[in-house]
Specification:
Layout: H1 10-15, E1 16-20, E2 31-37, E3 44-49, E4 67-71, E5 84-90, E6 99-101, E7 103-104, H2 105-114, E8 128-133, E9 136-141, E10 149-154, H3 162-172, H4 174-179, E11 182-188, H5 192-199, E12 215-217, H6 222-226, E13 230-231, E14 236-237, E15 239-244, E16 250-256, H7 264-280, H8 299-309
Parallel strand pairs: 10-11, 11-12
Antiparallel strand pairs: 1-2, 2-3, 3-7, 4-5, 5-6, 8-9, 8-12, 10-15, 13-14, 15-16
EC number: 1.11.1.24
Protein name: thioredoxin-dependent peroxiredoxin
Family: Belongs to the peroxiredoxin family. AhpC/Prx1 subfamily.
């Protein structure tokens, strides 16, 4: 981003301190710069110029010359969701035809807090993309699995260490998940070409070998962001695991830090338990497995269970 022009008021130049942000934009010609006000509040302000050739205009910017607007364009920067109200200052210097957006940190945090996040008993974020399925590239989406349970699990990177142990374990349990009408999908921010290369690598060499489950590519990181598992600094997802029922509703969410893998047997047990409660209306106590006693979810009905086990 260019330095502020000399035409910028001296007071404004002294008041702000520039710091480059590493924020991905939808198009390469959009730049995001963050300024820190040297004031008692130490608020942060984000500004966006839509054309790298046009300097951010300070000529007509009064200290509080901001209004609320609806920001809605075809390709807004990823920092700003569609139709979200922002504090904005429009440049008054024709013919530049650009806008300067200034967002107070407190306000931006409020906006972010209202952005949708995955929540239990709510619809799962819709996903789609290119996956490796049976050794071939194929477009898949959540819509393809209507009527089925889906185990969607994120892992950090191809050609790593803990990740192949998890993916192979899920693939080896494919038939057991299939028997209860459940699909399992693995996701990372690697490309589908990387996925295929890893599948074509021997397990003795740290590869995956033959896979019975799809490996979805999330190169844009959109799916990882939508599910709230992306580590923004590294660009890789944490070990998030989501159980989605046949109606597209989220039933279970877990997110592990990078060093520790997940239990496939526990995931299978959870799906079995949720499906049992869906079909029978009873609830499953701690450690429940198929065939064990369940309980009615009311004070009187639950007594039968407690009498039987204590």
């Amino acid at each position: 981003m260019k330095e502020l022009k000399e035409s910028t008021p001296t007071a404004a130049r002294k008041k702000i301190k520039r710091k480059q942000l590493d924020i991905e934009s939808d198009t390469s010609d959009k730049k995001v710069v963050e300024y820190k006000e040297l004031s008692e509040t130490e608020d942060w302000i984000s500004e966006i110029s839509y054309n790298d050739e046009i300097p951010i205009c300070k000529e007509n910017t009064a200290e509080n010359d901001f209004v609320f607007v609806n920001f809605n364009t075809d390709n807004p920067p990823s920092l700003m969701p569609h139709t979200t109200p922002y504090v904005v200052h429009a440049c008054h210097c024709p013919p530049t035809r650009h806008f300067v957006f200034a967002v107070n940190t407190e306000f931006l945090n409020k906006v972010r807090s209202k952005m949708p996040v995955p929540s239990l008993q709510k619809p799962a974020p819709v996903f789609k993309g290119t996956a490796v399925v049976d050794g071939q590239f194929k477009e898949i989406s959540l819509e393809d699995y209507k009527g089925q349970y889906v185990v969607l699990f994120f892992y950090p990177l191809d050609f790593t260490f803990v990740c192949p142990t998890e993916i192979i374990a899920f693939s080896d349990k494919f038939e057991e998940f299939k028997a209860i009408n459940t699909a399992v999908i693995a996701v990372s921010t690697d490309s589908h070409f990387s996925h295929l290369a890893w599948i074509n690598t021997s397990r003795k060499q740290g590869g995956l070998g033959e896979m019975k489950i799809p490996l979805l590519s999330d190169k844009s990181m959109k799916v990882s962001k939508d599910y709230g598992v992306l580590d923004e600094e590294s660009g890789i997802p944490f070990r998030g695991l989501f159980i989605i029922d046949g109606k597209g509703t989220l039933r279970q969410i877990t997110i592990n830090d990078l060093p520790v893998g997940r239990s496939v047997d526990e995931t299978l047990r959870l799906v079995q338990a949720f499906k049992f409660t869906d079909e029978h209306g009873e609830v499953c106590p701690a450690g429940w497995t198929p065939g064990k006693k369940t309980m009615k979810p009311d004070p009187d009905g639950s007594k039968d269970y407690f009498k039987a086990v204590h």
